[in-house]
Amino acid sequence: MQNIIKFLGLLFCLSNISIAQATLNVFACEPEWGALVQELGGDKVSVFIATNALQDVHHIEAKPSLVAKLRKADLLVCTGAELEIGWLPVLIRQAGNPNIQSGKVGNFEAAHYVRMLEIPTRLDRADGDVHPGGNPHIQTDPRNIANVSDALAQRLTEIDSVNAAFYQERHLDFTQRWQSAIKRWENQATPLKGINIVVQHKGFPYLENWLGLNEVAALEPKPGVEATSTHLAEVLNQLKNQPAKMVI
Q: Out of 3-7, 100-104, 110-114, 126-130, which region has the weakest mean confidence (pLDDT)?
């Protein structure tokens, strides 16, 4: 009987150790949010990133492997603003994970914490791939990343309050390094202020707003619509009057 009690006591101790050492499973939709979670969470988080920089995040296949990862997630971190609307709702529904449903503490959308640009005054599919909540490509302004980091650090402490001090310390360290980097980048980019640029996709309003760039043309005739020879000819003609320094 004493051996059984000792055995049960050992199991209890091991279970407590397991809980204390457990990491938060984080499902990040894009690499930038995966990197940010890792900065803030350190060894307290295990991050899975669903996409890579070479993919068009508007169009991702809702694979069973992604469903399996999301099913085990404690926290879902995505851009929001309908950037992932073509595939994320399917994953959430199929995963059946109550922790990461919309409105739950485990569902984090970065776009909620920045000032959105290019909010349309009308919604018409004839205008191309237009997002009702504004342009979702918020990550091209590092000041937005700073705002998101504030909210994300707070969310981590809500989910894992035991390690709140750890997350707060890492957030402070990240913020100091990030603000220094922003100042350095702004100094380096000073010569770019006011220059004309052409964009491939209308995904850079936040970068343009941050650095003072002037977008004069887009290679896509409408957001998400492939360029035609007619449109490209119009762009070339336009650039004769408004020469651009670069294409992004």
A: 3-7
CB neighbour list of residue 12: distance below 8 Å, 6 or more residues apart = none
Taking the C-alpha atoms of residue 46 and residue 38, their distance in angstroms, rounded to an integer, is 8
Contacts of 106 (CB under 8 A, 6+ apart): 73, 74, 75, 76, 97, 99, 100, 159
> What pLDDT was estimated at residue 163?
98
Query: How far is Cα 51 from Cα 117, in angstroms, rounded to an integer?
Result: 24
- Please tell me the number of Cα atoms within 13 Å of 75 on its side-chain side: 28
Domain 23-187 has CATH 2.60.120.10: no
The CATH number of domain 191-247 is 3.30.160.70 = no
Burial of 85 (0-12, 13-18, 19+ CB in 10 A): middle
Predicted local confidence at residue 126, as pLDDT: 63
- The predicted pLDDT at position 11 comes to 40
Return the closest-CA partner of residue 215 out of 183, 247, 167, 188: 247
Residues of the chain with CATH 3.40.50.1980: 23-187, 191-247
Predicted pLDDT at 228: 94
166 close to 59: Cβ distance less than 8 angstroms: no
Convert the pLDDT of each residue in 204-214 to its tens digit: 999 999 999 99
pLDDT at 10 over 50: no
State whether residue 125 is helix, strand or coil.
helix
Report helix, strand or coil for 158.
Answer: helix
Query: Structure pTM?
Result: 0.88
